[in-house]
Design a protein that fits this description.
Blueprint (H helix, E strand, L loop, with lengths): L1 H17 L13 E2 L5 H4 L28 E15 L4 E19 L2 E22 L5 E23 L2 E22 L6 E25 L3 E10 L2 E20 L5 E7 L5 E2 L5 E7 L2 E10 L3 E10 L5 E2 L2 E2 L5 E10 L16 E15 L2 E21 L2 E17 L6 E15 L9
Antiparallel strand pairs: 1-4, 2-3, 2-21, 3-4, 4-5, 5-6, 6-7, 7-8, 7-9, 8-13, 9-10, 9-11, 9-12, 12-15, 13-14, 14-17, 15-16, 17-18, 18-19, 19-20, 20-21
Length: 435
């Protein structure tokens, strides 16, 4: 089992690192941050500070692990399609990669732990502008970036007298690549590409607390707060540069496309003399309240802010401001205990969420805003019974729409995000009794 689990984590890490991002605004900071792709959060537009569950994982607030009553796992895929619109061009970009991989275990009454692997940020951008040399030949300056960060987390949470506390330890790793090119139209000059690589690694923490109160037997209210401390991560940095030419290449179907042909010999390569630096990650705070009826419905409202203005990479700061936003979300289960195929849709967990806020990204002194809505469906599979408890795994399918932009600038983004996951529940570590 240990070998299999290690293999899964290594494969998932590779998928996360090779399939990242699709936004021109991801050049700011460490790229676009993923809001949690765990279904308990994603399906509700990022709700997580004030909600908990006995059979789903909520790493946004590790105090929620205290409520786990089943061994719980989640794994799935995430697909994002981005319609980018500018004054002169429209483009559609898609990427698909691992959503999350996580496991949670109850350790006793009101105590649990969880571990997992999840993407943290994504970077993929490209922009250019043209100019001309003194003798009249054209030159293009191209700026591109790719890569991203992922995290492995391990945390625990416990609850006593309605107060729950928890902490996640996180190992963050990945690579950020910034590329600049000088492309000459004349054969008199050689075009050149510069690649700046920053390998990132280090540790961080996020903590959380919740207070829940039950009243009238079936109803409850939960207050929650979660805080990500931010962190100073180590970077290992080096530069590579090589010449290239532009031309046409033939695709497998016979179509001709523009292509670049890069020389394998580097004119600059500092990999053997790499320098060390620091990536300062921003802290974040999220808080809110949830009210609901056990196994029936829940409604949540939360506020989130992230101190993007504190971000720096190797002492280079940005003009980012602090992001902030409001989120509302909830879920409804018409009849969790209904039986029979005719009643199946009554047992589905229907989730919804909406958010609105400011991104902290400024273009020509205009801050980008964002607004989004999400819906999700938790469709149960076969149910099992242990003593008085009924449990079973589910397939979750969630959809999210996000608009980002500012009416005073000529770039707008519209995302369609799809998250498909399997959430399994089981009873492990059952203490057998013999008469």
């Amino acid at each position: 089992m240990k070998i299999k689990l290690t293999t899964i984590i290594l494969v998932c890490s590779h998928i996360m690192l090779v399939s990242q991002g699709n936004s021109p605004f991801s050049q700011f900071g460490p790229g676009d941050f993923y809001e949690s792709n765990f279904q308990s959060n994603f399906a509700k537009s990022g709700i997580g500070a004030s909600n908990y569950s006995s059979n789903t994982l909520n790493p946004l607030n590790p105090s929620s692990y205290s409520q786990l009553t089943f061994t719980t796992g989640e794994a799935g895929l995430y697909s994002s399609t981005n319609w980018v619109s500018t004054e002169t061009k429209d483009d559609i970009i898609n990427n698909t990669n691992l959503a999350v991989f996580g496991l949670g275990f109850p350790l006793g009454n009101n105590w649990g732990l969880a571990l997992g692997l999840t993407p943290l940020s994504k970077q993929n951008y490209s922009n250019s502008f043209g100019d001309s040399l003194s003798e009249g030949s054209a030159v293009d300056y191209v700026y591109e970036g790719n890569g991203g960060l992922s995290e492995v987390f391990f945390g625990t949470g416990f609850e006593k007298n309605g107060f729950a506390f928890g902490v996640n330890g996180k190992y963050i790793f990945g690579r950020l690549n910034d590329i600049s090119k000088v492309k000459y139209s004349s054969d008199e000059f050689k075009s050149v590409r510069f690649q700046n690589f920053s390998n990132v690694s280090g540790f961080s923490f996020n903590t959380g607390a919740q207070y829940k109160k039950t009243f009238n037997t079936n109803f409850y209210i939960t207050y929650g707060l979660t805080y990500d401390l931010g962190s100073s991560l180590n970077t290992n940095n080096y530069l590579k540069a090589n010449y290239f030419t532009s031309g046409e290449a033939t695709k497998a179907n016979g179509d001709l496309i523009d292509a670049e042909f890069h020389e394998t010999e580097f004119i600059i390569n500092t990999e053997d003399e790499a320098s060390n630096g620091i990536l300062q990650m921003p802290s974040s705070l999220q808080s809110g309240v949830s009210i609901g009826k056990f196994e029936k419905w829940e409604l949540s409202a939360e506020y989130k802010t992230r101190s993007l203005s504190n971000f720096s990479l190797n002492a280079a700061t940005t003009q980012l401001g602090n992001s902030q936003g409001f989120i509302i979300g909830g879920n409804i289960i018409p009849n969790n205990k209904a039986l029979g195929r005719s009643n199946y849709w009554k047992t589905v967990n229907y989730n919804f969420g909406a958010k609105i806020g400011q991104t902290g990204i400024f273009i020509d002194n205009n801050e980008l805003s964002e607004i989004g809505i999400n819906i999700g469906f938790g469709m149960p599979l076969k149910k099992f019974k242990y003593q008085t408890e009924t449990f079973g795994s589910s397939i979750y399918l969630s959809f999210g729409y996000l608009h980002r932009g500012n009416n005073n600038i000529n770039i707008q983004e519209n995302f369609l995000n799809i998250n498909a996951s399997v959430v399994f529940n089981d009873k492990w570590f059952v203490k057998r009794k013999f008469n």
